[in-house]
Amino acid sequence: MAGTVVVFDFDKTIIDCDSDNWVVDDLGFTDLFNQLLPIMPWNSLMDRMMKELHAQEKTIDDIAEVLKRAPIHPRIVPAIKSAHSLGCELRIVSDANMFFVETMLEHLGLREYFSEINTNPGFVDEEGRLRIIPYHDFTKSSHGCNICPPNLCKGMIIERIQASLEGRKKIIYLGDGTGDYCPSLRLGKADYMMPRKNFPVWDLICGNPLLIKAEIHEWSDGEGLERVLLQIINMISVEENKDNSAQLISVDCKLQTISASNQALPQALPVPQ
């Protein structure tokens, strides 16, 4: 399965909530968040909320403890570990932030299973305040995608991953939100899209499924995610084994042909005089 890359969204895919809302709501800042949401980009608003939390003496440890209580379906961790043990390379593409994602993965014992995390940078500054900055600095230039939010185009990340793979690997993409629609449009015919059923990305895909080149396999909860993901991985494995067998047969036939061509021809029968 060295030929498969599984790309996970994070919020409402690995964990069963939106991590930004989970932290803001749990720490009692929902009203302020809702007041500022109409006038600020989401990513900038989250950085502002971290400033407000710090001003109210909420610490990094407080935020981490809230994240560790985030809901997650009991089959998600086994699904991730199984995909990794079967030889898949695992990556994350998320519009959350690095501190939230890594805190949760480390808490779940999953950090080592992911080779790459693509998300908005999140770090603790010298004052002990969590800073969240955009993956793409939209204050300097636009990423040029009119589908995605200004701070992050997941489709562009998928294209970068595809370029690095040079067509040698299949991609399985799992997601739930509107931000996962752009990458689904970038997947190829050999890839697989796993949208969460009855979530925004599912609705967008259902609007015109012919726009998606990849095979579409929906899931509804952690149990469904595990079942569908492992079925796809198994299907890819069977196909790879068939291809390898066909190549071995082809090589074997070529060797037999070469061997036969090198054998001495039988002597011609003498012609009676």
TrEMBL record:
Binding site for substrate: 20, 95
Names of required cofactors: Mg(2+)
Keywords: Hydrolase, Magnesium, Metal-binding
Active-site residues, record numbering mapped to chain: 9, 11
Magnesium listed as a keyword: yes
Domain of life from the UniProt record: Eukaryota
GO molecular function, one term: phosphatase activity
NCBIfam families recorded: DKMTPPase-SF, HAD-SF-IB
Designated name of the protein: Inorganic pyrophosphatase 1-like isoform X2
Gene name linked to the record: LOC111280453
